[in-house]
């Protein structure tokens, strides 16, 4: 076959595949994919000691999963463990783990493999925020942001992905942020760590896809502010388009995205449009929109919870 005939054939196959996938996506927006059953799955949640991590644990308890809870805070994690048992969890295993320490992640991961088994749903949720302007932020705090919000994801993948690949079964969940999609003043180190987490999770999705490891799923979550206390005092300039989210709502959406094996979940929905606008609007228009949405002043009232304690 001549090379021009070959490239025409390749292009037609590509066109057919593209049309098919667009149609498939349209059908699945009308008839959503059924929710998968996670009863008996071993679900590891990092940062399970409060906020989203705790609420996720309670939801997975209702769904009959085996829970593995990690947190640097013993007190918070034990409380989640108790609440999950009260919520009907059949098996809950709580571990103290400082996710910013690579060796500790590997050590506790080995313990989990021996004591519980192969983790099949890994939720990288632990997170911290410094909330300081770049030049006011000490180096060690910026390094900590990266260690917890991003680098911990590398180590947990190294620890748990091989078994998911071997079993052709697993789900990797990355809790990033709207700050992983759009840069925000006063949040430079946090944004950078969340962009990194998103980039890593997306690349690993492509890597597993290209290697035909189709049993390993990925979900990347990018929420705007949620009322968990992490971003206490932060504001939105436009609550109708960019509302500060209720934790219960956010967790409901996250669980739904995991069970329907959605790759991306941005909350609120307006974020999808914002990211689309960012890709082509003139810079001055983008900045005017950011100003209208109150982005430049969103962090002005930030209250550092760690300093309060
Ligand atoms: N709250 C928001 O507005 C918001 C918005 C977007 C994304 N997020 C992300 O959602 C995730 C959960 O945040 P949240 O709102 O529930 O906050 P949170 O502070 O209530 O929970 C974070 C948990 O992570 C734990 N943690 C912190 N450092 C750790 C470490 N080194 N090792 C292990 N655990 C550690 C904390 O002890 C805490 O239990 C975070 O990744 C956060 O960045 C939050």
Automatic annotation (TrEMBL):
Family matches, as SUPFAM superfamilies: NAD(P)-binding Rossmann-fold domains
BP GO annotations: keratinocyte proliferation; negative regulation of gene expression, epigenetic; negative regulation of transcription by RNA polymerase II; retinal metabolic process; retinol metabolic process
Protein name: Epidermal retinol dehydrogenase 2 isoform X1
Organism: Carlito syrichta (Philippine tarsier)
GO molecular function: all-trans-retinol dehydrogenase (NAD+) activity; RNA polymerase II-specific DNA-binding transcription factor binding; transcription corepressor activity
Family assignment from sequence similarity: Belongs to the short-chain dehydrogenases/reductases (SDR) family.
Transmembrane intervals: 270-290
Gene: LOC103261738
Example of a GO cellular component annotation carried by this entry: plasma membrane
UniProt entry tagged with the keyword Disulfide bond: no
Lineage: Eukaryota, Metazoa, Chordata, Craniata, Vertebrata
